[in-house]
């Protein structure tokens, strides 16, 4: 009976796997068409200064609404795009959309930055810096308006090659950010060798810090490490007021998460920015907004 059950289990597993790869193949074809037809959307999530409550920047997050399957999450289609060579056109699309939207917002918020996630493949593409330079020039933005979020794992696949690309991006003025810090095979040795400006503490630690003292200790240590290395430290995945307060106390430079603002379409983000109280002018008392 046990053997039979095992066999049955195996068959079920095989079937599930086969359905999985059929879906992957179908999605891949659809993704190719969607990219070519410019059907992917870009949403934006604010990065907020915990001291002032104001957005210092936004992160671009790609969205795909499939005509039959509905919303397909990036964690499913980004790996597909990476494996199939679709990641280059996808990155181009997100980059150009993000810079175009950011150029509009910077007319009212001149210091606002936009962050674009780069996958491992893009980071090893020697043509990327020129592509970024062209995209910046097209909308007339300085390099410092752009933050590029990378993961250490991506860099480690070929350090020398990645470093050449990273240094070229830096020469354009773009800021580099290490995403999901604390996960994967992140290694402190690599962190010190990368020409980065910002560190983002992975949300798995941030979400757990209220309930777990060891996770809180990891976050505290990461903030201190980032500051020792001269980096701006961002905490991602802030979902409640208590965590926000704890991160502000730890000296986090920016916070991001559902508690501050969810990823939203460009028009919604513009309205969200407009609702923020103006920054207090230097030298003037910090007056609370009239209720
Ligand atoms: P990431 O860059 O670490 O982005 C943060 C993810 O956490 C986003 O998921 C965001 O929606 C989600 N998030 C933000 N705040 C909270 C929170 O308070 N709680 C929880 N539970 N989640 C929160 P999303 O948009 O599904 O993206 C997942 C990953 O896919 C991203 O992780 C990034 O690695 C990748 N990705 C997204 N857009 C792009 C893109 O345009 N290009 C590339 N190469 N990768 C992308
Ligand atoms: Mg990111
Ligand atoms: Mg992240
Ligand atoms: Mg992530």
TrEMBL record:
It comes from the Bacteria. Residues 24-277 form the EAL domain. This is GGDEF domain-containing protein. It comes from Pseudokineococcus marinus.
